[in-house]
Queue: 2 jobs
Job 1
Amino acid sequence: MAARSKSVRSGNGPANSRGKPTLRTIADITGLAVTTVSRALANAPQISIDTRNRVRQVALDIGYSPDRAAQRLKTGRTNVIAVLLEPHEEILGYGTSVMAGIAKALQGTSYHLIVMPNFLNAANIDAINYIIRNSMADGLIFSRTEPLDPRVMLLSENGFPFVTHGRTELATAHAFVDYDNFTFAYEATRRLIAKGRRKLALISGPAGYTFAGHIQHGFMTAVREAGCAYEILSDIDLDSPAGAIRDRIRRRYAEKDPPDGFACGGEVCALATITGMTDCGLTLGLEYDIVAKQTSQLLGAIQPRVDTIYEDLTATGEHMGRILLRRIAGSTDINELQLLLSPELPFETQAAGAAS
Amino acid sequence: MAARSKSVRSGNGPANSRGKPTLRTIADITGLAVTTVSRALANAPQISIDTRNRVRQVALDIGYSPDRAAQRLKTGRTNVIAVLLEPHEEILGYGTSVMAGIAKALQGTSYHLIVMPNFLNAANIDAINYIIRNSMADGLIFSRTEPLDPRVMLLSENGFPFVTHGRTELATAHAFVDYDNFTFAYEATRRLIAKGRRKLALISGPAGYTFAGHIQHGFMTAVREAGCAYEILSDIDLDSPAGAIRDRIRRRYAEKDPPDGFACGGEVCALATITGMTDCGLTLGLEYDIVAKQTSQLLGAIQPRVDTIYEDLTATGEHMGRILLRRIAGSTDINELQLLLSPELPFETQAAGAAS
DNA sequence: TCGTATGATGAAAACGTTTTAAATGGACGA
DNA sequence: TCGTCCATTTAAAACGTTTTCATCATACGA
C-alpha cells in the first residue's frame, strides 16, 4: 500500500551507497516519509503509536543505527564527553580509576567517553582551546586545579560545560567534585599524634595545586592544635619518583631531629618513605609511623599494614560524570553541581553539598 | 571585486548560524566558490598557488577549522583511533602508558585517540561490534589476545583495521605488536639459576591469554635445560590482588620444599611476593631471589633493588599507533604490520620483523 | 581565424540527519 | 453543505563538507 510517489529505491534491502541502513531505508520499507521515521524513532507524540511501533520494529529487524556524524552535523551536539588526561596520572592508574567511574555514569546515556591524552604538549590550555574550537565534545572533565586555574577561566568565559576534579578560588562558581583533603590531612596527622608521634613530616602535592594547599592546611591545623614539632619535606612531593623520595628520606634522617611520623598524600610516596626508613634501619610501627592516602590496593602488599585513609577515585569519576550531564542539560544550580567528598563517608550515603 | 552572483551573505564576519567560520565564510571573503576554497585548503594542484596562499591566509586570520562532523559525514572516515581499555589495565597505569605511546604516534596526523572503556560490560566482543556498526573509528587497538581470539576473528572478517597488543594463533595473519614474553621468562629464569637458585616458581598471566602461555613456555624451557626443580604457582596470577598473592606465598612457604627463586610477570606481584616472604622472615637476595618484569618505576622504591627485565609500554603504544596508521592507509604487507619487541633491545634500534 | 588544449574556477549534488512549515483527510459543529 | 479543527503525515531546507562534472578564459598550433 501507499506507494512512494517519486524515486522509488530499487529493493528493500540496505539500499545505501555505503551499505548501512539509513532512515531512508526504513522509509522505503514502511512506505513512510523519512521525516516520519525520524520522528517515530525519536518517539515523538505526534506520530501514532502504531506507526512508532512499526518503525521501531523494522529498525530493529534491519539493524539500523543512526549515523552519529549526520546527527552531529545537524544538531551541533557531539554526544561526547572528553576527559583531559595528564602525564602525572600515569601513576597508579589514577586515570583509569576515574575513567571507570565516568564510564559508569555515562552508561545508558547516549554519551561517549573520549580521552584527550595530554601526554605530549604540556600547555594544556591549548588542548582545551582545541576542544572548544573544534567542538570535539559537549562537556569536559579534568583534574588538578589551581587556585586561579586558567583552564577554568577559559571554559567559564566560553560557557563550555565542564567539571573539575578539585576546587579553585575563582569568583565565578563552577562545577566540581573534590575530596576533602583538608580533613584527610587533619585526620591523618591526628592519627600520627594519637600513635604517640611527636615530630611529624608531611609529603604534600606539588606546589601550585589547590589540593596541595588543602593538605598543607589540614596538616598545619592539626600540628598546631597539638603543639607538636613538624616539617614539610622540601624538594619532593607526591609526584616525585619513588627513588627521589627514598633518597630524600635518607638524607633527612642523617640530619638531626628526624621525624617519627609521616603524613603521605599518596601510596607510592608512602612506599618510598618506608623504603627510605628501612634503609636507615628503622621499622614501621616501631620507630616511626605513616598515615597515607589510599587510592588503590597497592599498599595491601606491604607489611606491616600501613594506616591509610581512602579516596574513592571511581566514585569521584562517577560523580563527575553525573554532574557534567546535569550541567550539559542546562543546570546552573550550584548545589547540584558541586560536591565535596568526605574521607569518612562511603559512596552510597554521600549527599551533594556546596563547598567554600 | 568578483562579487558573488546569488545570495550574498550579509557581512564578512563569521556569518554562520552557529557563529563558527565555515568554508562558506572564506568563500564570501575571498570572492571564491566554496569548491575552490575546499580545494585550496586541501592543497589541490589544480588551484593556483596564489589562490591557495590567499585562502590559507584568510582561513588563518578568521580562525577557520573544518567541521569534523561534516567531513565525517561526507567522507565516511572518522579520523578517530579507538583503544579498548579493560579493567585489568587499571593496575599500574598500563593503559596510560600505552595510550601515551599511541598519542605520540598520532601526533601530527589528523587522527584523534578515543578510549572506549570497557570497565562495565565484560563481554567486550559487544564493544567491538558496536564500534564497527556505528563506525565509531577508523581503526582499533586492544590488548591481551587469546590464541583463538574472537575479537580478532570478528574484526578480520569485517576488514576493520586493527592492531592487537599480543599475538594469536589464528590462521589469518593480522597486525600486532607483542613483547617477546618467551624470551623474557626464559631470561628471567636463567638469571635466577645463575644466582644459584634451585627451586624456581613462576607467577604467570591469567590462563587463556596468549602471553601467559609464552611466559610459561619460556620458564619451562629454562628450568628443563637446567634440570632444576620448579613449580607454577596455582590459584594466583599477575592480576591477582596483592593480598591474595602475599597469602599464597605464605601458605606455600609453610609447605615443604618452598621455592627460593621467583619469576614474576609483573611488578605488583613481585612486590606482593617480597611481602609474603618477608612475613616468613626471609630476605630478598639472601634466602631467595626474584626476577620480575618491569613496566613502571614502582619497584624503584623497593629495597634491595629487585632484578627486573624491562617492557617499554609507551614504545609498544607508539608502535601500535604507527602500524595502525599504516594498516588504515591500506597496507597489507605483514612485514610492516607485525612487530615482536625483544626484552633486550632499546626502542630506537628496534627493527620491524615478522613473528611466528 | 578557428578549433582545441590547458589551467583555473564554479555549480550542484550528495552524505544522513533534524526541523520548519505545510499538506492531507476526516470528524465535527454550525 | 461548509468551514474549522485535530491528528497524522510529508516535502523541503538545512547542517558543512567533498566530489563530479561542467564552465570559462586564455593561449596555442594550424
Job 2
Amino acid sequence: MEKDLKKQIEVACQGTEDILVKDELVKMLGISIKENKPLKVKLGLDPTAPDIHLGHTVVLNKLRQFQDMGHKAVLIIGDYTARIGDPSGRSTLRPKLDPEVIDKNAETYMKQAFKILDSEKTEVVKNSEWLQPLQLADILNLTSRFTVARMLERDDFKKRFNGNISIAIMEFLYPIMQAYDSVAINSDIELGGTDQRFNLLVGRELQKDLGQRQQIAITMPLLVGLDGVSKMSKSLGNYIGVTEKPDEIFGKVMSIPDSLIIGYYRLLTRLPKTEIDSIEKQITTQGENPVFAKRNLAKIIIGILYDKQQAEDAEQHFDIIFKEKKIPDEIPEFCISGEDITEGRMSIVNLLVKSGLAESNADAKRQIIQGAIKANDVKITDINLIFNTQGLKGMIIQKGKRFFRKINIQ
RNA sequence: GGAGGAGUGCCCGAGUGGUCAAAGGGAGCAGACUGUAAAUCUGCCGGUGUAAGCCUACAUAGGUUCAAAUCCUUUCUCCUCCA
C-alpha cells in the first residue's frame, strides 16, 4: 500500500471534476494509511449496452489508480438498476431492458472493464443481490427519506420539469436505488461521471440517515467525443470502443480536434500530472506541433487496451495510409453475388452501393462526381462506368482516404 | 374533469396557404491544404432517373383548396394552468 499521504491525495484528485467533500477525503486517506486499512472504492456500471467505450474508461482509470495505491475496488454490476435505466442527463425515459439482455451485457462489460482494472484486486457484485429482495415496505421506507423538492434540485430533472418534458415517477427511484447500493456495501468512496453527482450525493445522504460513515463522492469529467462537441456516446457515433482494432483506435484518436488532446491525456492516460502539464506547455507556448502529442496519446491508449507492440504497429499502419497514401494490407472484402451481375457486367454505381461504400445510387454518383472514388488507384470520373465482372476480381475500390473494399467473386 | 400550448429532415431549430425537399446551426461525406482522419476554405448532404420529371417526407388519419408543413376535423404523444 502506498504510504505517502501527499502522493495519495495527488493521485486521487488528479483529473477529477469535483470531490465532495475533499477535506473528508484527506482525513479518510490519512486514517486508512495509519491503520493500514484499504478503502472501499465503489463504482457502479449499468450494463445497458454490450460494449464500453473510452468514455467509460475515464472512471475505470480512476478506480485503477486507487487499486494501484492499495485500495479495494468494488465494482457493482447494476443488473437491477439497468432495468429502470439511469435518467441522468437524459431528456426522455429509457427503454426497458430484458433481464437476459442485461446479463449478457454484463458479461462483456466485465471482460472489457478488466482491460483497465486489475482483476485480482476487484470485487464484483450484482446489485440485484440486495435490490431484488426488497419488499414494498422497504421501498416505502427508503422513499420516505427523500422529497420531491430534493429530487427536483437535480439539474436534469429540473430542466425536464421546467422544459415541460415528462418525468416518470419511477425515475425518481433510480438515485435511491443507487444510494442503497452504497449502503449495501458500505462504501467509502464512490466514483462517477459528473452526471452522477446527484446520485452520489444521495448515497451520502442515505448512508448518513442509516448511520453509516458517509462516502466521498468523486466525479470525473465527461469525455468529449470525437466530434469535439458532445459527450462521447455510442448513440452519437462519436466514440472509440475498447474492443476496436488498434489501427482503428489510432486513426480515431488522430481525428480528434487538437483542442481535445490535453483533456484526453488527463482522463485517459494515467500519466502523472506534471508530465501532462509539460506536454500542454509544449503545445500551447512552445509552438510544438500537436500532431506529436496526438500520436503519442494514441499509442498510450492502445498500450493500455492492448500492448505496446500493437500500438507501434497501429502507428505504422496509419503512416502507410495517410502519409504515404498507400493501400492498407487488410481490406474488408466484398463478394459480388450472381444477382448483381447482368450479362457479365456490373456498374460502378451498383458496386459502390452493394459494397456499402455508398448509401444509395444518388450518393454513389455524388461521390464519383466529387472525385472520391478510385479503382485500383485510378480515379473514376464517369458515373456510367460499367465493369466486366471478370476484370473485377481482386480489384480495390477506394472511397475517399479511408474506405476500401477488395472485390471478390464467388 | 376543465382551459390552453406543443409535435418539422440524423440532432437542434426557422418556417403559418403557392417562390418548400423545407432557412440556419451541429453531425456526416467529399475536395483543397497539411508532418493530423486537427484547424481552415469549398462542395455535397430524402429516393429514383442521363435529364425534364416522378415518388416519399413536416406526429396520425381524413377534409377544405387549383395549391397545405402552413387552414379545419380525428386519433396519438407530451406539457402548462385550474380543479
